[in-house]
Every structure is written in C-alpha cells, then in structure tokens.
Design goal:
Number of helices: 4
Helix content: 25-40%
Number of strands: 5
Order of helices and strands: HEEEHEHEH
Structural class: alpha+beta
Strand content: 15-25%
C-alpha cells in the first residue's frame, strides 16, 4: 500500500513539474499593434496604423508582448530621425485579434480628436513606418531534435581499426 501511494505521489509531482516547465518562455504569435507618440511640449500627437506583426508573447496567463519597450523605441527612433518630434513619449498597444486592436485604436484616436483639449492627430502610414519583429533575448524555440536515421559514415581510421580487429 505504501509503495503504491509513493508511486502515485511521484507521478503527480512529475506531471506537475513537466507542465510548469513547458509554460515558461515565449510563444510566437501574430499580433495587431499600433503606436502612439506625444510630446509634452507640443499639441501634435502621432499615431501609426494598426499593423499585423509576427511577435512573441509570454507563455503564461498574462500573454504580455515580449520586449514591449523595443517596439516603442522603434517608433521613437523613427520620429527623432525624421525630425517630427525631438523628445517623444511613445506607447505601443497591441491585441491578439484585429477587432480588439481597432477598438483600442479608435478609442485613443477619439480621445485626442474629440476631447476637451483638441490635439492635432497625425497618422503615420505603413509606407513611412513599419514595426519590425523583435526576438526575446532568452527565447529558445520548443523544437524536438530530429533523430538521424541514416547510418553514420565512419572515418578511415575507425574503418581500419575495425578491419584490423576483425583480422585478429
């Protein structure tokens, strides 16, 4: 009876360990994102269109976008290099489906266009700026190693040693 209980506990612990080890890391996903940039010194805000990007999400219940700040820095570097804004504050928003991303986009755009204080909202087209996918620093894809089914080719030294052993 005790052996059976120990065995059941060991199996349950092993399954829990395997399940938790698979949940760590990042998973590739298609996300829809857009950027928003503003400056405290200016009443002009810039928004990118909603773009479909191959990105990585945290493989846990949060599904956070991996390296979120890098996407915001891409927009910031674009605005600074083109001279549109010198010190922009950039935000990148995303969703896993297009309708949720569009809903966030229109809500933010309406807030700045139709609010009490009117802002000059300028859209940045896809031809001007496009997000580039960022791979997480500690990303290791869950790829099972392929087993080589072809026979290995031996070196000439190994073949001569094997032939020499056969002759003895």
């Amino acid at each position: 009876m005790k052996v059976r209980q120990v065995l059941i506990i060991a199996v349950v612990l092993l399954l829990g360990w395997v399940n938790s080890s698979n949940a760590k890391g990042y998973k590739p996903a298609k996300v829809y994102m857009f950027g928003f940039a503003a400056s405290f010194n200016d009443s002009t805000v810039y928004m990118t269109n909603v773009q479909k990007i191959d990105a990585y999400l945290a493989n846990d219940r949060t599904n956070f976008l991996a390296n979120r700040e890098d996407y915001s820095y891409q927009l910031r570097y674009y605005l600074q290099s083109t001279g549109l804004l010198n010190f922009p504050t950039c935000v990148t928003m995303y969703a896993e489906n297009e309708s949720k991303a569009m809903k966030k986009f229109t809500a933010l755009k309406n807030k700045y266009e139709k609010g009490k204080k009117k802002y000059d909202v300028k859209l940045i087209s896809d031809s001007e700026f496009r997000y580039k996918a960022v791979t997480p620093d500690n990303y290791t894809p869950n790829v099972t190693p392929q087993v080589n089914t072809t026979p290995a080719v031996q070196s000439k030294e190994a073949q001569t040693q094997e032939n020499g052993n056969k002759q003895l």
